[in-house]
Amino acid sequence: MLFRYAFDDFKLWVESRNPKCLVLRGARQVGKTTVVRSNPNLFDKKINIAVVNLEEHPELSAVFASNDAAGIIEELAFITGSKFVAGDIVFLDEIQAATSALQAMRYLREHRPDLRFVAAGSLLDTEISEGRISVPVGRMEYQYMGPLSFEEFLIAHSDCSMELDLIRSWTPGMLFPRTAHKKLINLLRTFIVVGGMPEAVNHYIESGGTDGVSRIQASIINTYRDDFAKYNSKEELLLLRKVFDWVPARAGDKAIYSQITRDVRANRVSKAINLLSSARIIFPVCHSSGNGVPLGAEASPDVFKLFFLDVGLMAHMTGISRITDKQILSNEFINKGRLAEQFIAQHLLFKSPSYERPVLHYWLREKKGSNAEVDFLIQHEGKVVPIEVKSGKTGSMKSLLRFIQEKNASLAVRFDTNPPSTQAVIHQLGNGAGKSDRVQFDLLSLPLYMVGEVQRLLKSQLTESKKRYND
Asked: What's the rounded Cα separation, in Å, for the pair 460 and 465?
């Protein structure tokens, strides 16, 4: 079984005192059901997990609508063959199939506080955003899930424990073995093709190669396409598919509605984007002025770029997954800028605690003859940290330098394919008034595969910087 950090988060909820009802939120097939039904952290606790798939029991819609907690419990006990006792987990899967079930969970929790109630659904977020499902305010807590991370991908490899330990223990100033870096870059290339969808990763691990992964990815993508028809009118179906196909090909580009389609009004394109975002298949990354934290306080929701759910699905949809294992290991393969930026985006989105809604920002300055864009902005210990992503080993940092100049930032991160390093950067940059400013900052340069450690390494770098400046 594939290890997921989400297993630990779910265990914490199970063991907490007087927990609220839990709702697992995430796209179809990212592993929500597995976290509940097959969580290895619960195997030794002999906890009974009563599972009810509401798509298989349409008759329960009327039962939940009654809000009769005792009657609902009796129905659920009969369906599962369980006599619920203290500590049992009642799992309502595909909860969007019964629009009143989520609201009824509050009454179930009040009626049986000794039980744990958890829900999940493939298009639950879409149903909520469309107003078809009401969420009892203050009675629920959430756990957000995405695809497997690269570190989880390494955990699935039985021969990568040394490399994983190295990633987790490296700090600025330490040497990084070249042989380990070479192996990790090759694994990164493979991950970009396989991606983090559990079924695709599991097939790759069991078969030892990428053959067959494309078929699985095609099946997942077709499932998403089928969902469009199920939950939307026919007239919107074509538009949803246009957006769905546009994002993988243009991931990281500023979203301009007329570039997605010239034949549809902007408000309809916006609605299609919102629907796919609610289904957590695509993610908007909004511009923020980046003057301080929180970044969301200065975010511009009308200025955004879009990313896909998973880099492997994105690679498949753009034809890159149809290559041989030999080609995966070639020097040219990693130099696909959109794939590198997508890889970093999905990891930054789901690096926050699972109870926080995945949100990410970037910086864009549009001036005639002086445009600048920083790929991502993150927060660290009250500071705004700009992040640049390079698909290869080299690349210009003009936009990053411009951000540092304007915001007087002292620390930045660059992701590329080089081994990890740090450097103090001093640069003379024109200020637009015929003069130049002295730009000085610390640059934490990390290989793409170390994105999961960025917050830890920023803390280490800040400590080292303070020591250096104090000395």
From this structure: 9
**How many CA atoms lie within 13 Å of 239's alpha carbon, on the beta-carbon side?**
23
Three-class SS state of 120: strand
Which secondary-structure segment (H or E) carries 303?
strand 299-308
Which long-range contacts (C-beta less than 8 Å, at least 24 apart) are formed by 84-87?
A: 84/48, 84/50, 84/112, 84/115, 85/48, 85/114, 86/114, 86/115, 87/47, 87/48, 87/114, 87/115, 87/116
Whether the full predicted model's pTM is greater than 0.85, yes or no, is yes
Query: Under DSSP, is residue 277 helix (H, G, I), strand (E, B) or coil?
Result: helix
Residue type, 375: D
More confident residue, 345 or 427: 345
Q: Give tens-digit pLDDT for 247-256.
A: 999 999 999 9
- Structural Rg of the chain based on CA atoms: 24
Q: Which two tokens stand for residue 414?
A: 């660059």
Q: What one-letter code names the amino acid at 257? A: Y
Q: What is the pLDDT of residue 44?
A: 67
Q: Which domains does the chain have, with CATH numbers?
A: 5-144 (3.40.50.300), 213-470 (no CATH)
Looking up tokens 């696909």 gives 336
